[in-house]
Every structure is written in structure tokens, then in C-alpha cells.
Amino acid sequence: MTKQTEHTLSSKHLFIQKIIQKKCMRIFCMHVFSMSCLAILLFAATSHNALATTDPPRENLVPGGIAVVPISKVHTILTPHVTYNNRRVMVLDGKFIWYAVVGISLAAKPGQHELRIDRADGKIKIKTFTVKPKKYEAQHITLKDKRKVNPYKKDLTRIKKEKKLISSAFQSWRNDVPSETLFTLPVEGRLSSPFGLRRFFNKQARKPHSGIDIAAPKGAPIKAPAGGEILRTGNYFFNGNSVFIDHGQGLVTMYCHMDKIDVKVGQQVKQGEAIGKVGMTGRVTGPHVHWSVSINDTRVDPNLFFPETIETALAKKAKLN
Ligand SMILES: [Zn+2]
Q1: Distance, CA of 192 to CA of 38 (rounded, Å)
Q2: Vertex 223 angle, CA 220 and 228, to 5°
Q3: Is 23 buried (19+), middle (13-18) or exposed (0-12) by CB count in 10 A?
Q4: How far is the CA of 291 from the centre of ligand 1 (A)?
Q5: What's the number of CA atoms in the CB half-sphere (13 Å) around residue 55?
Q6: Which numeric CATH code is attached to 138-320?
Q7: pLDDT tens for each residue of 183-203
Q8: pTM as predicted
Q9: For residue 212, how far is its CA from the centre of ligand 1 (angstroms)?
């Protein structure tokens, strides 16, 4: 081999080597690029999970309704601390805005109401919303068991004790954001008593109906309308066998008059998971579930957690069966 050919060969070799190097580099770059993309996607997915956005329930600015109040436009990692009548209020992440979800009491007076926002910088901000008047219908119920209308003295001691337990359950607060604010039906049946009715038992005025009643056959399953943690179970004078679910951020739901309780305190439940069976324990005229939905320790209309009314949802379910 001459020196000339040797030189050509080695330069050819070098040329091929360069091409291979370039190709390798390109493959490496593509690999790095795709890995970065994957990392970005993974980061986006996890950070989205950490700052998951939740749609609020429907707003209805009446007693027993819900106010959805924008709190701050600037998105900060720290959730603003919001209170209404000295009670902590649910704050949800709406992508570019924080908003407070406020339960309005059935006893709330129409007019302007104030929310207090304690900012991270120590400043206090006040936001207002206006409550419109609403007159709920009256309902007269006749109970054969007169003891459930005018309880005995020994019953009153039990009722007083239970009232405290029930109130403390509704006051529960966990920072966890509810996994769902759009509910599924807790039971299939007929809406037998709507929310907010002004009630009279054997012609005597009692507290308004702070939940809804769904009549269903004894033994029908009761399912969690949203994920959460079993907060309390028990048997109460008026409410019978009951279950409380804590969904987080002050959202607590209660199921009463159950025949059987199938969950334990501390148990985590998913949306649609069975928690017990329909019964007629406590103050009832027939088998049904009394269902209460509470936010900031205020019982609100459960209809607001459905895109349509509960009655429509129940009718649709009945048609499917
Ligand atoms: Zn009821």
C-alpha cells in the first residue's frame, strides 16, 4: 500500500467515524430530548395532581344555598385562609384563581354577608356576597310515636348528649381537598322530602328540614356520593343508625335511619362505595335515608352538588332499571 492510498483510507475512515459520531450525537440528543419531554410531562402530571383543580358546587345565594366567591387572582402555592362567621371556609383551586365555597345557613338574613381573608403577608381582606330571600314550603307530619315529638325526660338527656356529638362531627376540618364536589346518588329511590321545608310534627313547629329524604326499600344499599373518610358512626334518638363522611375542607355528609352500618370510623371510602343499608331507625314514618350535606358547619341544599336536580337524577336512574 502506498502512502497516498494509506492516507486516503485513513481520511475515509475518519470521515466514516465522524458520520457515526454525528449520528450517535443525534441519537443521544434525541434521547435526551425525549427523556426531558417525559420528565416535563411527569412533572406536569404530578404537579397538577398536587395542585388539582376542583370545580365548585353550583351557586345559589339564598338561605340554605352556597356562595362561590373569587378570592385572589394571583396563584400562590399557599391556600388562602378564609373564614365566614368565624368558621373556616372551603377554598378550591380554580386554575388561575382561588375561590371560597361558602355554606349559607337556612337561618341567614337576606342582605350583605362578609368573608374574612387572612393573607400570608398578615393583611386582612374582606369580600362580600349578597343573600337573596327564599321562603321554603311548610310540611306537616303526623307521628304515632308521640315520644319522638315530645321526648321523655330521660330521652332529653340522651338527645342533649347526641346533639353535641353530631355538632362536633359537622365542625370537622381536614386540609385535604374533596376528591369530588360533583356527587353521585347515595341511594336509588323516590325523593320523599326536599331540603329546607319548615316542619311541623303533630302540629308543633320544629327545626326546618336540613337535608333531603329519599324513600327506598329496607335493605337497599347506601353508597358514598363522594370519596372521604368515615368520621363517625352511631345510633341516635332522632337520627337512628347514622354515618358521617368527612370529604375534606369542611365538607361533611350524614346518612340517617340506616338498618345496617357497613363501615368503621377511620375507613377511607371511594365515590360509589357501599356504607350501609336503608332502614327505619330513629324518628321515621317509613324506610328512607335522611341525607345532610354540610360545609363550614352549615347544612346546605344537596341539590347544589349535582349538575341537575336530585329528583331528575333519581327519575333517570329509575328509568334505567
Ligand atoms: Zn329527613
Answers
A1: 53
A2: 155
A3: exposed
A4: 7
A5: 8
A6: 2.70.70.10
A7: 999 999 999 999 999 988 888
A8: 0.81
A9: 5
Residues whose beta carbons lie less than 5 angstroms from ion ligand 1? 213, 290
The beta strand positions in the chain, using DSSP E, are 66-72, 81-84, 87-88, 90-93, 98-103, 111-118, 124-131, 138-141, 190-193, 198-201, 204-205, 212-215, 221-223, 228-236, 240-248, 251-261, 268-269, 274-278, 288-295, 298-300
Categorize the per-residue pLDDT at 309 as very low, low, confident or very high, splitting at 50, 70 and 90: very high
Cα 194 to averaged position of ligand 1 atoms, centre (Å): 8
Using CA atoms, how far apart are residues 107 and 204, in angstroms rounded to an integer? 19
Distance 316 CA to ligand 1 centre (A): 22
CA of 140 to the centre of ligand 1 (A): 13
Could you tell me the distance, in angstroms and rounded to a whole number, from the CA of residue 241 to the centre of ligand 1? 13
Q: Is the pLDDT of residue 19 over 70?
A: no
pLDDT digits (tens, 9 = 90+) for 85-120: 999 999 998 878 899 999 999 999 999 999 999 987
* Tens-place pLDDT, residues 235-279: 999 999 999 999 999 999 999 999 999 999 999 999 999 999 999
Interval between CA 116 and ligand 1 midpoint (Å): 32
Q: How far is the CA of 193 from the centre of ligand 1 (A)?
A: 7
What does the pLDDT read at residue 21? 65
Domain ranges within the chain, ordered by starting residue: 66-131, 138-320
CB 247 within 8 A of CB 254: no
**Does 138-320 match 66-131 at the fold level?**
no
Pick the CATH number of 66-131 from 2.120.10.30, 3.40.640.10, 2.60.40.1590, 3.30.1490.100: 2.60.40.1590
Evaluate whether 114 touches 100 at the Cβ level (below 8 Å): no
